[in-house]
Specification:
The chain is of the alpha/beta class and 318 residues long. It has 10 helices and 9 strands. A 5-stranded parallel sheet has the order 7-6-5-8-9. The protein has a 4-stranded parallel sheet with strand order 2-1-3-4, sandwiched between helices. Helix 6 links the parallel strand 5 (168-173) and strand 6. Helix 1 (24-42) packs across helix 5 (147-161) and helix 1 (24-42) packs across helix 10 (295-313). The protein is globular, with a radius of gyration of 19 Å. Bound molecules: N-carbamoyl-L-aspartate.
């Protein structure tokens, strides 16, 4: 695969494929820029013009509710023309390759593609083959990365806790299949989190994860002691080919966020989940939007973060 640089020679973002390797200054600038859009929105100023005349194409080869709609809203709030390709109804189902789909849509003068695909590396493939000046945003590729989700998670933590440096964060659940976990871990490390823990049954921990600088726990109660942030992850049954778990009930008992476990968390600790939630599995259902939950703030922050990324990439070139 051709190597792709996310930053151009002057250090400006030209694609967003992964948070891995992006400098702290770039991440902080994106979070600050997202905060600027949130502030403007609170003052009734929701619509901006920096992508006027630009075309953004959403290409979702996998199911999505939050990510696709918030990418669309973000592009529209920056005044771009937005096209959503219905992949199930597109020529992919007739055997057209990813490369030919890209070239066909590029011929329509698209400036930016937002792509979600079940193959890890699909966004890199697009970026490697895109025409010069065409930007690629990764909206989730297989188990690999989900960088705008990572950014919205960082933004939500920073809003609630005032900082990221020095915090203790615990990710609980299906780490093995989670691109959300990988992006969060890279972002949290770069911005100086003190401790990043992952808690899951051994079957749901990827080999070699210690290399990312995380501590692995199989006892969730030990993992949650003293944490500032709990990040719950969905059991990704659609990516599980074998028997990873005895039963969902057992997972909930051993790893789910129950009222009992939540009561033992420090008073200030927040609970996050990227959605979609399996109620009664990762979290006791009535806590999903409870006092500690910032799950809906994550959704709203997703719009601002995606606006920030699109504006930094395309707006700067206008
Ligand atoms: C996640 C995804 O698709 O990676 N959802 C999301 O984008 N908010 C996580 C998941 O599907 O569990």
């Amino acid at each position: 695969m051709i190597a792709v640089s996310q930053l151009d020679a002057e250090g400006h973002l030209q694609h967003l494929l992964t948070l891995e390797g992006l400098p702290a200054a770039t991440l902080t600038d994106l979070l600050d820029h997202a905060d600027h859009y949130l502030d403007a929105g609170r003052q009734g100023d929701k619509k901006h013009s920096s992508l006027l005349g630009r075309t953004v194409i959403n290409l979702f080869f996998e199911a999505s509710t939050r990510t696709r709609t918030t990418f669309e809203l973000a592009a529209k709030r920056l005044s771009a023309d937005v096209l959503n390709l219905q992949v199930a109804a597109s020529s992919t189902s007739k055997g057209e390759t990813l490369f030919d789909t890209l070239k066909t849509l590029e011929a329509m003068q698209a400036d930016m593609f937002v792509i979600r695909h079940d193959a890890s590396g699909a966004a890199h493939f697009f970026a490697a083959h895109a025409a010069p000046g065409v930007a690629i945003l990764n909206a989730g590729d297989g188990r690999h990365a989900h960088p705008t989700q990572g950014l919205l998670d960082l933004l939500t933590v920073r809003q609630r806790m005032g900082r990221i440096a020095g915090l203790k964060v615990c990710l609980v659940g299906d780490i093995l299949h989670s691109r959300v976990a990988r992006s969060a871990i890279h972002g949290l490390r770069t911005l100086g989190a003190a401790e990043i823990r992952v808690a899951a049954p051994p079957t749901l921990i990827p080999a070699g994860i210690d290399a990312l600088g995380v501590q692995v726990f199989h006892d969730v109660d030990a993992a949650l002691s003293d944490v500032d942030v709990v990040m719950l992850l969905r059991l990704q049954k659609e990516r599980m080919l074998g028997a990873f778990l005895p039963s969902l009930g057992e997972f909930h008992r051993d790893y789910g966020l129950t009222h009992q476990r939540a009561a033992r968390l420090p008073e200030h600790a927040i609970v996050m989940h990227p959605g979609p939630i399996n109620r009664g599995v990762e979290i006791e259902g009535d806590m999903a939007y409870g006092a500690r939950s910032v799950i809906l703030e994550q959704v709203n922050n997703g719009i601002a973060v995606r606006m920030a990324v699109m504006d930094r990439i395309l707006g700067a070139r206008s």
